[in-house]
Amino acid sequence: MSAAVQKTTGDFKNKQFSEEEVASKVVEQYDEVHARTFYKYVMGGGGYDIHYGMFRTASDGVFESSKNTNAALLRLLDQTRPVTKDSVVLDLGSGHGGLSHEIATTFGCKVVSFNISPEQNNMNLEEAARLGVKELISVVEGNFNDAATFPPKKLPKITHIVSCEVFCHAASKPALLSDIFKMLEPGGALVFTDIMGADGANEKALKDFTDRNATTEMARPSGYLQQMKDAGFAHVGFFDGSGHLLPYFAAMLDVCLKQGDDMVKDGVPRPYLDKWIASLTDRVKIQGDEAVFAWGLFSARKPGPLY
After folding, report:
1. Which residue from 58, 236, 248, 264 puts its CA 20 to 30 A from 155's CA?
2. For every residue of the chain, which 3-state class applies, written as one string?
3. Which parts pass through the membrane (predicted)?
4. Among 240-249, 251-260, 272-281, where is mean pLDDT lowest?
5. Is 0.90 surpassed by the pTM of this model?
6. CA nearest 290: which of 226, 208, 168?
7. Is the pLDDT of residue 23 over 50?
8. How open is the CA angle 264-267-271, to the nearest 5 degrees?
9. Which domains does the chain have, with CATH numbers?
10. pLDDT band for position 21 (50/70/90)?
11. Alpha carbon of 4 to those of 7, 52, 92: distances in Å?
C-alpha cells in the first residue's frame, strides 16, 4: 500500500488572486489543521495571535513581540476613542481570538469576533471560556469579501473596530473601508495593522510574500491613508512600524529552523515547512537589502462625538 499523500494546501506559488477567488483561498490558508498548527508555532509562539510583532528587547521572540503589538493596538484604540464597559468592539478577522480576549479582559466590554474560519472560531470560544470572558465575546462567522455575510446583520451599535493583519486579504480595500465606515456609530474608531508593500515597491519584489498568502495586490501605506479619507474617516493617522519587520521575519525563520521537527511531529507536512523556510529566507534577505515591505498601525475616526 502506498503511503498517504500529505496535504500541503496553502501554497500559492506564482499566484495572486482575483477579487472573486481570494476568499476561498483565505480559508485554505488558515483553516487546514496543518496550517493552524504552523501559525500557532511561527506567529503565535504557542499563543492565540497570528500577526506581526513589535520588539522591545533583544530577547523578544514571536510570542513576546506579538503581545507587544496587542498592547500597542489597545492603547491606540483607547486613544482614538475611549473604550469603556459600554463600548462594543468588532474584531474584524479575529482568527483564534487572541486580540478579542485581551480587549475583553482589559476593558470589560463586549467584543464581536468576526471571522471566516469555523475551527478558529471554536478555538476562540473555548479559550474565552477558560479565561472567564465568554459572556463578553460573541462570534460571527462570515467572509468580509461576501456581501451575503458582510456587513453582518443584527449587530449591536459598534463603537470601535479593530483588525490585525487581515486587510491584506480584502478583495477590494476601498470597498471594505466603506463598509466599515457605515458599520461604525458616529464618532466610532477604527484601528488596524496590515502587512503592505513599501511605497514605491513593485509587486515582483513582494513575490515571496504573495506566494505564501491569499492576496490580491498588496496595499501601500499612502494608499490606505487616502482610502480612509475617501471613505469619510477623519483624524487619519499612521505609525510606521516597518522597522520591526526584519527582526520578525528573522524570528519566524528561527522558529521554523529550531522547532521544525516538532512541527512535523504535530502534523505540519515537511514540504509545506520547507517552502516556508525558503520563502522566509528570501524575505529576510530582501527586507534587509531593500526594505520592500511595510507595516504599521493605522487609526481613524468617523466624524461625531468623542464620548
Report:
1. 236
2. CCCCCCCCCCCCCCCCCCCCCHHHHHHHHHHCHHHHHHHHHHCCCCCCCCCCCCCCCCCCCHHHHHHHHHHHHHHHHHHHCCCCCCCEEEEECCCCCHHHHHHHHHHCCEEEEEECCHHHHHHHHHHHHHHCCHHHEEEEECCCCCCCCCCCCCCCCEEEEEEECCHHHCCCHHHHHHHHHHHEEEEEEEEEEEEEECCCCCHHHHHHHHCCCCCCCCCCHHHHHHHHHHHCCEEEEEEECHHHHHHHHHHHHHHHHHHHHHHHHCCCCHHHHHHHHHHHHHHHHHHHHHCCEEEEEEEEECCCCCC
3. none
4. 272-281
5. no
6. 208
7. yes
8. 55
9. 12-299 (3.40.50.150)
10. low
11. 9, 34, 37
Please give the grid coordinates belonging to residue 137: 465575546
Average pLDDT, whole number, for the chain?
Answer: 88
Place of cell 520578525: 248
Burial letters for 142-176: b for 16+ Cβ neighbours within 10 Å, e otherwise?
bbbbeeebbeeeeeeebbbbbbbbbbbbbbebebb
Contact 264, 258 (CB under 8 A): no
* CB-CB contact of 191 with 235 (8 Å): no
What cell was used for 126? Answer: 473555548
